[in-house]
Design a protein that fits this description.
Blueprint (H helix, E strand, L loop, with lengths): L3 E4 L2 E4 L2 E5 L5 E8 L3 E7 L2 E7 L7 E7 L3 E2 L3 H8 L11 E12 L2 E10 L2 E13 L3 E11 L8 E2 L4 E2 L1 E15 L5
Antiparallel strand pairs: 1-2, 3-6, 3-15, 4-5, 4-15, 5-8, 6-7, 7-9, 9-10, 10-11, 11-12, 12-15, 13-14
């Protein structure tokens, strides 16, 4: 059976379970620090499953990243991001996304779902560019959230001033491989 189908002029993978390949996937974040510089980070520990249904609009996506795996290249900043001031990784070890809807968006797809961070869940939509080959699915997309929607205050307690812009951009690059039937 071919792993590629065309439905309503969109290429979609064959029905089945697709597992995110951790070594070829990442979830990146970008925020403005001191309102000037961009700080970029990556969640190093990312996992997830894509369940492709016969009717692709009924497919589901679940992704999780370990909050303690966020890295920016600066140890003090990484520890601060993991602290109760931001991700509170000790109390809320996972950042998760669970899809609630999948729909065509021009030549691409829009996935809407629930993003959960620091114990709060908010809806987000991601426009995904999708590429499908015989045994690999690639998807890329981005979305922006406000930290305050998740109870995160983008200011320095010590200085009493805004140090990080409220908006944070998430960029998702996923490579998933088909899980053989019966596994």
């Amino acid at each position: 059976m071919s792993a590629i189908r065309t439905i309503e002029n969109l290429t979609v993978p064959a029905p089945g379970v697709w597992q995110i390949d951790r070594s070829h996937s990442d979830l990146r974040i970008t925020a403005r620090h001191l309102m000037l510089a961009r700080v970029r980070g990556t969640f190093e520990d990312l996992a997830g499953t894509i369940n492709v249904a016969e009717n692709p609009l009924e497919s589901t996506v679940e992704i999780e990243a370990k909050a303690a795996s966020v890295t920016t290249g600066t140890t003090d900043r990484d520890n601060h991001l993991r602290s109760a001031d931001f991700l509170d990784a000790e109390q809320y070890p996972l950042v998760t996304f669970k899809s609630t809807e999948l729909a065509p968006a021009g030549d691409d797809w829009r996935v809407t779902g629930d993003l959960t961070m620091v114990g709060r869940t908010r809806p987000v939509s991601v426009d995904l560019k999708l590429e499908v080959s015989a045994d690999t699915l690639r998807a890329e997309g981005s979305f922006v959230v406000k930290q305050t929607d998740f109870g995160i205050k983008p200011y320095s307690k010590a200085l009493g001033l805004v140090k990080v812009k409220d908006e944070v951009r998430f960029e998702l690059r996923v490579v998933a491989v088909a899980v053989p039937a019966g596994r």
